[in-house]
Specification:
Blueprint (H helix, E strand, L loop, with lengths): L6 E7 L3 E7 L6 E8 L3 H14 L2 E7 L10 H16 L5 E4 L3
Parallel strand pairs: 1-4, 4-5
Antiparallel strand pairs: 1-2, 2-3
């Protein structure tokens, strides 16, 4: 994370649902915020941007899924596109991609 005193907003994109979680200001624990039905890229980006502004997020972290082989597939491409669009909606707020090891 870029600022230890800023809250992080975590985004878990799915075809049908989008999960959001927010950290405490120290970034040590995250709690679920919302699990909402996906409505299309434009509406979903706006909803996530609105929530990021509401919680005064200092960073947004979008999950980057990988295939069992470790390669990126279709869902990873969608996550990258979503993160790009979200970054344009949130100037000054880093939007990062995260994949688990």
């Amino acid at each position: 994370m870029t600022d230890a005193a800023a809250r992080a907003l975590g985004v878990d994109l799915g075809d049908a649902r989008i999960g959001l979680a927010a950290s405490d200001p120290a970034g040590s624990i995250a709690m679920p915020l919302e699990d909402a039905r996906a409505r299309g890229a434009a509406q979903d980006v706006e909803r996530v941007a609105r929530r990021a502004r509401e919680i005064e997020a200092g960073v947004v972290v979008v999950g980057l899924p990988r295939l069992m082989s470790g390669e990126e597939g279709h869902q990873a491409r969608l996550a990258r596109e979503f993160a790009e669009r979200l970054g344009r909606q949130l100037p000054g707020v880093p939007v990062e991609l995260w994949t688990s090891a």
